[in-house]
Amino acid sequence: MITLLYFARLREALGTGREELLLPSGINTLGALRAHLEQRGDAWAKEMAAGRNLRAAVNQSVATPDTPIKDGDEVAFFPPVTGG
Amino acid sequence: MSVRIHEQDFDVSAEMAAMRRGNPKIGAIASFVGVVRDINEGDSVATMTLEHYPGMTEKAISEIIDQACGRWEVLDALVIHRVGTLKPTDQIVLVIVASTHRGDAFAACEFIMDFLKTRAPFWKKEITPQGARWVDARVADDQAAERWKT
To answer: Does the ipTM exceed 0.90?
Structure first.
């Protein structure tokens, strides 16, 4: 299982802030995981689409599409940050 | 070096005094306080709610402080960032940097703030007369962080 977290505008659009997911076989990078989530359709298709400006982290470190994902990881997706 | 994220307000004077007392080598302390404005993008802001990513936010800010320590002489640094619902005139963020001399304190303080704006996972949602809206990231903030690369 991996833990998926969604923040801010993305959390509201998807209607969830957290889920546990059994990592499907063959999904072993952040980019592949995002494409997998996009396949859920509706809000997921819209929010996870390649053109959307999303940031991500794996185990609380900034990640890129080729960052490896493995069982037990915490993966977060979020919009560009606006603190300070 | 210390990073604190919480809802309650902070006392700048007390935090600076505490830092100063801790180290007689300190000759300069620079600080920055971010404050909630009542106007953003032309609309009046009634309240603002700040969300963060517990764990990663603290880690990201600690890494920014570490980078500052690698570039300048930093004797001590503190970042406090508030979360939850804030209103205009409220303090949002505090950065304090202590060094031997002012040049390093000023530069490190500005560096930490510029990178906090673009790297630390916080998100602002404003309540305006037109309703609630998530604040968009600003290009000017990315540019401010970029200039430190040269």
So the answer is: yes
